[in-house]
Design goal:
Blueprint lengths: L1 H12 L9 H9 L3 H6 L5 H8 L3 E4 L1 H14 L5 H10 L7 E7 L8 H12 L5 E7 L10 H4 L6 E5 L3 E3 L12 E5 L3 E3 L8 E2 L5 E5 L9 E2 L5 E5 L20 E5 H4 L15 E7 L4 H12 L6 E6 L8 H10 L14 E7 L4 H12 L6 E6 L5 H13 L9 E5 L7 H5 L5
Parallel strand pairs: 1-2, 2-3, 3-4, 4-6, 5-7, 6-9, 8-10, 9-11, 11-12, 12-13, 13-14, 14-15, 15-16, 16-17
Length: 426
């Protein structure tokens, strides 16, 4: 009986069940594979070749570059990275809706601006919806984001890292359908000197600027903006007037501690809609950062959540500043109560800082709706003992809310700050 069953299944074993799957299923299979493996499926049969040429998602990332480099070392067939990317893109028989390009020019020093322009032009004409471009170059070479992407009407999500962006003066239809923008290590410039009117981005909801230069030049008017992140992009050349107009509408704001040192909060409007404020690498040992952060919180009457990642490598408190603030009392830090604040999370907390303890004490005394306070201590030896010590100190502080619970832990928050809690989109 066993032998008959084996013989009976032989015809079924010879069938290619995978190739008979619906196109949608095969396309979903390709999404789960690295790009190099996806391209190899085209060799299996005509059916898989058709699926590959119509595949709408392409990821040319560092893993892909490593595989290309290994292939070049093995075969030495003379094909460059530019040749390979040209073949992948220009033989498409369908739209490319999602595209990721993560290139280090050291892999192909012959990469020219014209090559990058051709790829971008192809994508802009072939229905790209989500685009992630990371272009690393050495100090002697700068790449510019071509205008065809700025004016592309199909893009809804755009992430750019590295290239220079030359913004046209008084240009219309820039990022016209984009809802999410993220720029990292991007320098903004104007093609013509002089004052230019702001660029209207009617559908923009999320904007992230991290370690960018010339953001004053990036004058925009986004009526639907809800989430704004500005990390490491503000210096002594920054004009607080760039940020001020956006505070009226946004619901979530992400800033870094060093940015606070250059802000004139007195000129900010009341952030009536702001519900979530996140401060990255706030240095509690810096009196200016601490005072400005408190001034900013006062501008947010409807603030519900406050997240802080403290700067871990801070030095000792300025004892004179700490004594001054402690002597003046809490009212020098907050004038009004935070009626809506219900959640506070502080990571890399240090009980050795008098200013840090004063900050938390003030929040507890000025937040009648507070429900949860999560404190994560700095990574130190005897973490459990330190946590108990912190818990004991905070429990002694008076609380405006009878429902406020204080949770201290030595474990890092499970969420990644720059990805989950911020608006970083890459």
């Amino acid at each position: 009986m066993a032998r008959r069953r084996r013989l009976k299944t032989l015809p079924d074993a010879s069938r290619d069940l995978i190739s008979e799957l619906p196109v949608e299923v095969k396309d979903r299979i390709l999404e789960c594979l690295p790009t190099r493996d996806v391209a190899r499926t085209a060799l299996l049969s005509r059916h898989w070749n058709d699926v590959w040429l119509q595949h709408e998602r392409l990821v040319l990332d560092r893993k892909f570059l490593e595989s290309v480099k290994q292939k070049q070392l093995q075969d030495d067939d003379g094909r460059t990275l530019v040749n390979i990317i040209n073949n992948i893109l220009f033989f498409r028989t369908g739209p490319v809706k999602k595209f990721t390009l993560d290139i280090d020019t050291r892999y192909d020093p012959e990469l020219q601006q014209s090559d990058f322009d051709n790829w971008c032009l192809f994508l802009s004409r072939n229905g790209v919806v989500e685009l992630n471009l990371s272009l690393y170059s050495d100090l002697e070479r700068d790449y510019q984001l071509p205008f065809c992407l700025l004016s592309c009407r199909t893009i809804k999500k755009l992430i750019v890292e590295g290239p220079f962006i030359d913004l046209p003066v008084n240009a219309c239809d820039i990022f016209s359908n984009v809802t999410s923008l993220a720029f990292l290590n991007v320098a903004f410039g104007r093609s013509v000197n002089g004052i230019a009117s702001s660029i209207n981005i009617p559908k923009l909801e999320k904007l992230a600027l991290e370690y960018c230069g010339g953001i004053n030049t990036f004058e925009i008017s986004p009526p639907k903006l809800e989430i704004l992140s500005v990390i490491g992009s503000i210096d002594d050349d920054f004009d607080s007037r760039w940020l001020a107009p956006h505070l009226k509408a946004i619901k979530t704001l992400w800033l870094c501690g060093t940015s606070l040192e250059y802000m004139r909060v007195s000129m900010f409007p009341t952030a009536i809609n702001l519900q979530v404020l996140k401060l990255y690498e706030l240095d509690f040992g810096c009196q200016k950062q601490l005072i400005v952060s408190m001034q900013l919180i006062q501008k947010c009457p409807n603030l519900c959540e406050l997240w802080i990642m403290a700067y871990e490598f801070r030095g000792k408190d300025d004892q004179e500043a700490a004594s001054s603030l402690l002597d003046d009392g809490n009212d020098c830090l907050f004038i009004q109560e935070l009626q809506m604040l219900n959640t506070i999370k502080i990571e890399a907390f240090s009980d050795q800082s008098a200013l840090e303890l004063l900050f938390v004490k003030t929040l507890l005394s000025k937040s009648p709706a507070l429900e949860r306070v999560v404190i994560v201590e700095s990574l130190r030896k005897n973490a459990s003992e330190v946590v108990r010590k912190i818990q004991g100190k905070l429990e002694c502080f008076p609380r405006a809310s009878p429902n406020a619970q204080i949770v201290c832990t030595g474990a890092r928050m499970s969420e990644d700050w720059m990805d989950t809690h911020g608006v970083r989109l890459y």
